[in-house]
Amino acid sequence: MYKVVFLDLCGTLVKENTTFDFFNKMILPEKSFLLRALWKSKFVQLVTKILTVCHIKYDMTKKSCLFMMRGHTEGELRSLAKSYMSTLTWRRDILYKVEKLVQHGYKPVIVSASLPFLVEVVSNHLMINTYISSEMEYEDGIFTGRLLTDLQGNKLDVLANKNVDKSIFITDNLDDIICKDVVNYFIAVTNAKKRAYWKENKVLIHVV
User: Fold this and answer.
1) CA distance 132 to 93
2) DSSP label at residue 123
3) Residue 68: in which H helix or E strand, if any?
4) Per the confidence metrics, is the pTM higher than 0.85?
5) How far is the C-alpha of 1 from the C-alpha of 4, rounded, in Å?
6) CA gap 203, 173 in Å, rounded
7) What is the pLDDT of residues 113-149, one digit of tens each?
């Protein structure tokens, strides 16, 4: 029997949102004082929140992060990611559950909207052989600042196309609820504030 446990990364295996946290720690410090000041003013984040309230699907915060990463090679980003790894805060309770599932025959697969070089280094660290992430656009080996595919809110097809006998999905993302019916067990990693949302959607919860 082929059994899989699908794992979100940000907020699930680690506490950080790895894309933004990596940007803040590894990319932003090399930028000009003006750009650093603008970012720390949270103007971009405020615009993103306003757009969300207006039901406009445009994540200006994420797009700005990606834009300011442009010009790096894949090798440079991977090297920075390896240094960044030491700053992550692991959710040991979730990793323990994954370890037990592996002992019972489940294959772990990370399915994350984070950037591929970040998901890759985490997967290698955890000795997880398979991962699926968003895809970045490169021209002549240089990152353009754009994504080819973004898995944020778009994991349904990825999970639905996996031919498995039994599956579990562990995630903290509210928009991953669309995947609930394509897995056997959907487990939400949540804090007390969001517990009501998951209970309304009748999913198993793990409160952190």
Assistant:
1) 23
2) H
3) helix 60-69
4) yes
5) 10
6) 13
7) 999 999 999 999 999 999 999 999 999 999 999 999 9
